[in-house]
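Retro notes (design track)

What went well: tokenization of the new backbones is finally stable.
What didn't: we kept losing track of which sequence belonged to which structure.
Fix going forward: every design gets posted as structure first, then sequence, in one message. First example under the new rule, 388 residues:
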């Protein structure tokens, strides 16, 4: 079991990890791929896909589609961009006060369930405050005539607590419940380990909030003395969260040296970090593995060697009917797109396609195409369609 001592040494070791958000050398394009961001460029197919480069960005973090097929793209330095479906036009709709050192960024972005009426966009970012840094949940209203929109009426909804020093494990992923009534938000452990198990801290947790960022009524752990917003706990660095068509909530997180996880998130459950993990400390010391009867919820799938999971998407489109209902994960250090076969509440590993670059996020387009965005200073937006 992990002891509270030596965390400073463990933290120093963790920041040296090359698989976890580290700045790797410039990505090597996939064989035959063109580095040009031109919409007309068409790299050689990767795996079962024809791959088209649509646009290029400066350290992008997340992508999301609006109902009219335009995309919202976030960039590490705090810019939120509105991009045409063909990638040819873009405009900055907001610049946020991001603390972008290390793993800090303007992070996730998700249109509200009622976006067509409310025009609201939810997003997250890392910010400095009194006592340290933390992840922030916010929203704004996309206002103005088409082609001249700006994100206005920006308001902070939630700040993970406590603020701590360091620049890692902010997490900040967003998912709305299928009925559109609740917002699920991920708060990483900030590389501090024990807060993931602490009742009075939101770090290392999945949170269930109202659409206004308040603790949702009926959360399962409030009666046990946890913060009223906590839905599940014992998490590390949660970089993907999504509901499937059956209403199951899936979450992925980076493990330490090994032990990346895909979890089925159940209310009130303890997922074990930092007491158990299928990985090890970066200095080589062992962490007890998940084991039946240990009191912790084990991952449905884990990876060792790691994939360094980025964004998570559950596919529901028609272009790839063979993968309906499956999970797609962007791989950072693995430079891959990963598919996991979901069958009810069970999961098994599927394909892992080499992409020749760190994949930061993955999304499903309105026509069922799979879109991914590369990490880094010249991260490309790629559209994946069936090979013909």
């Amino acid at each position: 079991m992990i002891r509270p001592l030596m965390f400073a040494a463990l933290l120093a070791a963790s920041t040296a990890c090359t698989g976890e958000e580290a700045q790797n050398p410039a990505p090597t394009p996939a064989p035959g791929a063109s580095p040009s961001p031109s919409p007309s460029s068409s790299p050689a197919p990767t795996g079962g896909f024809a791959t088209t480069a649509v646009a290029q960005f400066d350290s992008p973090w997340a992508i999301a589609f609006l109902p009219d097929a335009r995309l919202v793209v976030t960039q590490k330095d705090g810019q939120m961009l509105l991009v045409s479906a063909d990638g040819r036009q873009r405009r900055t709709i907001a610049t946020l006060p991001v603390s972008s050192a290390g793993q800090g960024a303007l992070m996730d972005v998700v249109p509200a369930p009622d976006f067509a009426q409310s025009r609201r966009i939810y997003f997250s970012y890392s910010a400095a405050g009194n006592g340290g840094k933390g992840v922030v949940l916010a929203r704004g209203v996309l206002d103005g005539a088409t082609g001249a929109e700006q994100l206005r009426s920006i308001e902070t909804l939630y700040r993970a607590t406590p603020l701590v020093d360091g620049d890692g494990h902010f997490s900040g992923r967003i998912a709305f419940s299928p009925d559109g009534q609740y917002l699920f938000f991920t708060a990483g452990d900030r590389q501090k380990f024990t807060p993931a198990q602490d009742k009075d801290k939101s770090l290392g947790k999945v949170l269930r909030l109202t659409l206004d960022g308040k603790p949702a009524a009926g959360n399962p752990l409030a009666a046990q003395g946890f913060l009223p917003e906590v839905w599940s706990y014992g998490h590390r660095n949660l970089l993907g969260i999504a509901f499937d068509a059956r209403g199951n909530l899936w979450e992925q997180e980076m493990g330490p040296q090994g032990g990346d996880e895909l979890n089925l998130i159940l209310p009130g459950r303890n997922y074990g970090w930092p007491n158990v993990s299928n990985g090890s400390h970066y200095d080589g010391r062992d962490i007890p593995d998940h084991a039946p009867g240990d009191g912790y919820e084990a991952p449905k799938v884990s990876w060792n060697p790691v994939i360094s999971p980025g964004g998570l998407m559950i596919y529901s489109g028609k272009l790839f009917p063979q993968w309906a209902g499956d999970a797609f994960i962007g791989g950072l250090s693995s430079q891959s797109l990963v598919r996991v076969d979901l069958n009810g509440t069970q999961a098994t590993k599927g394909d892992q396609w080499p992409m020749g670059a760190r994949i930061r996020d993955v999304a499903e387009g309105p026509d069922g195409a799979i879109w991914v965005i590369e990490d880094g200073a010249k991260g490309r937006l790629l559209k994946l369609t069936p090979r013909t």
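Added context from the reviewer: The chain has a mean pLDDT of 90.
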